[in-house]
Write a structure and sequence with these properties.
The chain is an all-alpha fold. It is 86% helix and 0% strand. The protein has 18 helices and no strands. Helix 10 runs antiparallel to helix 16. It is globular, with a radius of gyration of 23 Å.
Length: 518
């Protein structure tokens, strides 16, 4: 490899590392905030009101499907056109998306008003929460509208592969939102107060994203006159497929609250939601890797380097699986103990049982999520639509069937079983076909090597749980930190390839590396 090629590889690697690290930094801040804030919110609202909040959030969250894949289209085409220096086309795509989202935002507000009229009749919302629930639904609909419009600017920033800038904004807003929630709940704001806080944060995030997009891509011009049917068709040709995938993913991830709310007392949602939130954190860790791949492979195509896509996909799948395995093992082996310390003993066993079912499915899904992000970046994701739709359908049917016999654990099995089947069997065959990646390479690199590398960490984690159970949340995290070097050694000697270890060493010694991470 020439010195120039080595320099380009290191520069690309450094950019990717910076993006992944910034994603994870934002994730860590979010987790720390939620560790402190979640017990306060649950105990301030009560199980009934908190369950209603989760239910309403899940219900209104489906309005986000009005995105129609447009933000993903903006990200993909901005990345590709910027790499090819086609700035006028990038501006036309973004301008068309902005006008489209303006109309869809108005539709979201109208839909939220309709939902507000129906929500108390369709679900078992306590009578004392009925009025607040209706107002919260409408405010949440306005929040969706603001998020849709601002999503265009966020898509531009992501298309420029500047996750670090966007995450700096997200961290600042997460801290501000946490403070606002405490103040609002302390003042008795309840569900309406929480909805107002969310709306205010969305407005600030949209404003910051608009400023960043102008600063990072000054050549891109947003004009109403730049709208065109040609670019609208281009957005839809890409976006509708991504939107269907997103819709199916939303059903898979969030239908559980609706099933429980319809068939069990709404308070039962709280126990499931605590475990579901933990798996959301796992998906956020995976997304820290997968989100960087869509604009990256789009840029590779813009530079006529499509042959590198398979290698990027396989590395991303392995790194994503490696990143979440220590968390998965900790939650499976020690999840109930952690929940008991964090939320209270009454939550430990029911929530821990749900975690033990959901977490292994997320481990299997890590590589498949990276595959999906890669296929979106190369515009080869349409074939995944039947896969996600079938998984969503089976998820709902199984959850409804099993909840009557196993309660919230039955809903967990309804979510986990189809996800395991898709992730372990359907996903690998899809990537073999569309990225020319051998099945043996996927199973070995994305699943087996990370799992074997984490065996020492799993043994140490189980030993700590058996012989030295934590008595406080801080001692729990201290024990996890003490075990992490074992995970790092397993990753270094078993999971990383010799070339990747060389790249790590070279990157750490590369001039300006430290400044690039700032």
């Amino acid at each position: 490899m020439t010195a120039l090629a080595t320099g380009k590889r290191l520069t690309s690697w450094r950019r990717s590392l910076r993006n992944v690290v910034s994603n994870w930094a934002s994730f860590v801040v979010s987790v720390m905030i939620n560790l402190v804030l979640s017990p306060y919110i649950v105990h301030s609202l009560g199980d009934g009101a908190y369950g209603a909040w989760v239910l309403l959030s899940s219900l209104v969250g489906y309005l986000g499907l009005l995105d129609l894949g447009t933000r993903g289209a903006v990200t993909r085409y901005v990345a590709t056109y910027h790499a090819a220096h086609r700035h006028e086309d990038a501006g036309r795509i973004a301008s068309t998306a902005l006008i489209l989202f303006g109309g869809l935002g108005l539709l979201a507000v109208g839909a939220s008003v309709l939902l507000a009229l129906l929500v108390n009749h369709a679900f078992r919302v306590p009578d004392e929460l009925a009025d607040a629930a209706r107002i919260a639904v409408v405010l949440s609909g306005v929040n969706v509208a603001v998020s849709l419009v601002s999503g265009v600017f966020g898509g531009i920033v992501v298309g420029m592969q500047r996750f670090d800038s966007l995450n700096a904004v997200n961290i600042a807003l997460a801290l501000a939102q946490a403070i606002a929630i405490v103040l609002v709940l302390h003042a008795g704001g309840g569900l309406v107060g929480l909805a107002l806080v969310q709306l205010g944060v969305s407005v600030l995030r949209g404003s910051a994203s608009a400023w960043l997009s102008c600063r990072l891509y000054p050549e891109l011009a947003l004009r109403a006159s730049a709208w065109s049917r040609l670019h609208l068709r281009e957005i839809f040709s890409f976006g509708i497929s991504a939107s269907v995938l997103h819709a199916a993913g939303s059903v898979i991830n969030y239908a559980s609250a609706l099933v429980i709310g319809a068939l069990l007392p709404v308070a039962a949602i709280t126990f499931f939601a605590i475990a579901s939130t933990m798996t959301d954190y796992l998906r956020a860790v995976i997304a820290g890797v997968s989100q960087t791949l869509t604009p990256m492979v789009g840029a590779l195509e813009g530079q006529s380097r499509g042959a590198e896509v398979a290698e990027v996909c396989l590395q991303g799948a392995r790194f994503a699986t490696l990143a979440i395995l220590p968390i998965v093992l900790t939650l499976v082996l020690r999840g109930a103990s952690f929940i008991g310390i964090w939320m209270g003993p009454a939550y430990a066993e029911p929530t821990g049982a749900v975690l033990r079912v959901l977490c292994p499915a997320v481990w299997a899904f890590a590589g498949f999520q990276v595959v999906t992000a890669t296929m979106i970046g190369t515009n080869q994701h349409r074939g995944l639509i039947p896969v996600f739709v079938c998984e969503a359908f089976v998820n709902v049917v199984l959850s409804i069937a099993l909840v009557r016999y196993l309660g919230i654990v039955g809903v967990a099995w309804g979510t986990a079983l189809p996800r395991l089947i898709v992730s372990l069997f359907v996903g690998p065959f899809y990537v073999r076909r569309h990225a020319q990646m051998p099945l043996s390479a996927y199973y070995t690199q994305a699943l087996l090597r990370p799992a074997v590398g984490m065996i020492p960490f799993a043994l140490m984690t189980q030993a700590l749980e058996m012989w030295s159970p934590a008595s406080s949340i801080w001692s729990f995290f201290g024990q996890v930190l003490a075990a992490l070097p074992v995970a790092a050694l397993g990753a270094w000697f078993w999971v990383l390839t010799s070339r990747e270890r060389d790249v790590v060493r070279a990157s750490l010694a590369f001039p300006g590396f430290a400044s690039a991470m700032k």
